[in-house]
Write a structure and sequence with these properties.
Length: 229
């Protein structure tokens, strides 16, 4: 059968709460056009039952080639910031709002330039994120940057206004947290994971004020660490 692009990933997402099964199915996703030019689907990775799930934007050039999230320069910043905030990356699940690399070829040479995913791709790919949340059931969901925050909360969300706050999840993501139905009094209960938005680690790399930006990222992640404690 000819390859066909569908309107969203929904037709491709299996009814499963097993991350391994979701990852396998995502390899052949045609939920939007991004699969055409990218090397491969870059699905979430890490502890499948992590208490914290971190969501980035989309794979970058390095991630597209290697098939894993946050293994390039932004991943280095994230790794260091998590360590400085006392969050163990080995006990985290890391993913992206959009699972294929969106890029444009540089005018000269072979470099591929990152393009910010649009609303179409964010909406198309969201069923994977929802499925990952239902499978991992984290206590805390961290949105790294505007794309992730808009994927979770919708297009009106502003990271600059709400970063570093512990927010309730949007209605359709409630009920996807650990401890659902339990009476342990954790901040993420039947209401779903607590959500914290912060900047994207690559914003640190692009900034002229790297130290300040980095410190702000670590501060926000310390809020996450407190929620996990
Ligand atoms: N930036 C992201 O948002 N995600 C990655 O996986 C790598 C870079
Ligand atoms: Fe599917 Fe998401 Fe890739 Fe689009 S970006 S093809 S929705 S996995």
């Amino acid at each position: 059968m000819a390859r066909r692009t569908t309107h969203t990933a929904a037709d491709h997402v299996p009814d499963s709460t097993d991350v391994t099964k979701l990852r396998a199915a995502a390899r052949t996703c045609r939920g939007c056009d991004l699969y055409r030019d990218a090397t491969q689907t870059v699905f979430g990775a890490g502890d499948p039952h992590a208490r914290v799930m971190l969501v980035g934007e989309q794979p970058g050039d390095v991630e597209d080639r290697r098939g894993e999230p946050f293994v390039g320069p932004a991943g280095g910043v994230l790794e260091r910031a998590l360590a400085d905030a006392d969050i163990d990356r080995r006990h985290a699940y890391v993913t992206n709002a959009v699972k294929h690399f969106k890029f444009t070829p540089a005018e000269r040479g072979k470099r591929r330039l990152h393009k910010t995913p649009g609303r179409t791709e964010i909406v198309a790919c969201r069923p994977w994120l929802v499925a990952e949340l239902a499978a991992v059931r984290p206590l805390v969901l961290v949105c790294l940057g505007a794309t992730a925050a808009k994927a979770v909360f919708g297009p009106d969300f502003r990271v600059s206004r709400q970063r570093g706050q512990v927010l309730p999840p949007p209605e359709d993501l409630a009920g996807t947290a650990a401890g659902e139905g339990s009476a342990d009094g954790s901040s993420a209960s039947a209401a779903g994971p607590a959500v914290v938005a912060t900047i994207h680690p690559s914003a640190v790399l692009r900034s002229r004020d790297r130290d300040d930006m980095y410190a702000g990222l670590v501060d926000d992640l310390r809020v996450v660490a407190r929620e996990l404690a």
